[in-house]
Amino acid sequence: MLKYPPDVWDAKGQLRLPLSYWLILLLQARSWVLFVLADTSHQQASAILALFYPDPGDLGVGLIWGVPAAVGFLLSGWRQRFPRFWQRFPRFWQCWRWVLAISLLASFLQQCLAASQDMTLVTPWMIMTSIADLLGLAWLVLDRRLRDCFNPRLNHVE
User: Fold this and answer.
1) Where are the membrane-spanning stretches (predicted)?
2) Position 121 confidence tier, pLDDT thresholds 50, 70, 90
């Protein structure tokens, strides 16, 4: 008996990544998204960034925490394009779930540390993203289908 319905499998026998995975990556890469949006509006770039990141150093830290998500976007595409690579190195994709989880946890802890040091920097944006980081972390670790997408035994490549 199949664990999942046939529509969640692709033609190559791999589980399709759920929408929650892409939302977690966007959540984790939020600094990159804001940076690109601010860069496209040349005149108001500093005002937009100051709205979400009152301390300019927080943007740099956010960009660093967003690197695993950017790599996750690339690896997700490579999952389909280079099946022989994944046959040789199945643990790399499997471990990337934990890299994303550690990155979410580190981002949350960094925000808590920043809030504990200076309460004037605490904004509603920081509170919302901290809660979203925790929810994303829980979803990444506990969701069965998302966990199975990283399991090489369940994702046979033809």
Assistant:
1) 59-78, 98-116, 122-142
2) low
Q: Which residue(s) pair with 15 in the sheet?
A: 9
Q: How far, CA to CA in Å, does 91 sit from each of 1, 131, 141, 151? A: 26, 30, 17, 9
Radius of gyration of the chain (CA): 18
The pLDDT score that the predictor gives to residue 137 is 94
Q: Which residues pair with 9 in a beta bridge?
A: 15
Q: What is the pTM of this model?
A: 0.83
Is 28 within 8 Å of 100 (Cβ atoms)?
A: yes
| Pairwise CA distance, residues 64 & 58, whole Å | 10
